[in-house]
Amino acid sequence: GLNGNSWARDIQDNLGLHKIGQYLQLWQIMQRTELSTTPDRLIWRWTASGTYSAQSCYTATFHGSTGCHSWKLIWKCWAP
Asked: Per-residue pLDDT tens for 13-67?
């Protein structure tokens, strides 16, 4: 789709002013895009090595959350 700007030929319909602006921004970005023959690589950002692990996924799930230790009041209760 990038060769010869063939992706732009697929755009149809009446475009409003906002859509034309988005189209031109996309066009400028696509003009700077270069493809390589290097295969794509998935990199997991939650580990230093870039490889996925269940532990790192668990850590990522709670990233940015706040801790709540009120459960201690229930489990450490003096009630018989």
From this structure: 777 888 888 888 988 888 888 888 999 989 999 999 999 999 999 999 988 888 8
Two structure tokens written together for 15:
């475009």
Residue 46: is it exposed, middle or buried by C-beta count within 10 angstroms (0-12/13-18/19+)? middle
Query: What is the model's pLDDT at position 52?
Result: 95
Long-range contacts of 7-10 (CB under 8 A, 24+ apart): none
Give me the amino acid identity at 17: L
Q: Which two tokens stand for residue 17?
A: 């002013």
Question: Structure pTM?
Answer: 0.39
* Residue ranges of domains in the chain: 3-61
CA pair distance 68, 80, nearest whole angstrom:
25
Spatial contact of 26 and 19, defined as CB atoms under 8 Å apart: no
